[in-house]
Amino acid sequence: MAMVTGCDLVDISRLAAAIRRRPGLRERVFTGAELVDAHRGGVDPDSEVAYARLAARFAAKEATRKALRDLRLPFHAVEVRCAPDGAPQLYLDGAPTSLACSLSHDGGVAMAVVVGPAGDLTSPTDDPTTP
Fold first, then answer.
1. pLDDT at residue 125 above 80?
2. What SS3 state is found at 81?
3. Which of 29, 30, 31, 122 has minimal Cβ neighbours within 10 Å of its Cβ?
């Protein structure tokens, strides 16, 4: 079976600086559920923990776009949700995907890896009428 893969790294301090410069960026890139998750456990929205969590989710969005080979995919179309056991789950336009996702952050860098079966996913920007 053919597989798709994508990975991405994000410098946490660079993302934090971008959000501090442009506060609206947070809402343009992340869904409400992702923002709530980043602040779970009473974490301050401007803390390093919150920025590390957001950076990992941003990396997952980029890794998903790479796996699907669609860099035009809007950031809000890809959502990282936490399963009850805490594992990250990927959703496209609100629907669960067959893609598996792993997130990590350490040493000022966040990363994500996305893998899954090829062929049974379409991105929301796919237009079947386009030749």
1. no
2. strand
3. 122
Q: Structure pTM?
A: 0.88
User: By C-alpha distance, which of 88, 83, 92 is closest to 113?
Assistant: 88
Tokens of 70: 């669609």
Per the DSSP assignment, residues forming a β-bridge with 81 are 89
User: For the segment 42-95, what is each residue's pLDDT rounded down to a tens digit?
Assistant: 999 999 999 999 999 999 999 999 999 999 999 999 999 998 898 999 999 999
64 contacts 80 by C-beta, under 8 angstroms: no
Q: What is the CATH number of domain 3-117?
A: 3.90.470.20
Residue 119 CA to its chain's centroid (Å): 21
Burial class of residue 10 (count of CB atoms within 10 Å of its CB; 0-12, 13-18, 19+): buried
Q: How many residues can be counted in the chain? A: 131
- If 0-12 CB within 10 Å is exposed, 13-18 middle and 19+ buried, where does residue 83 land? exposed
Estimate the share of the chain in helix, then strand, then coil, as percent rounded to the nearest 5. Answer: 35, 30, 35
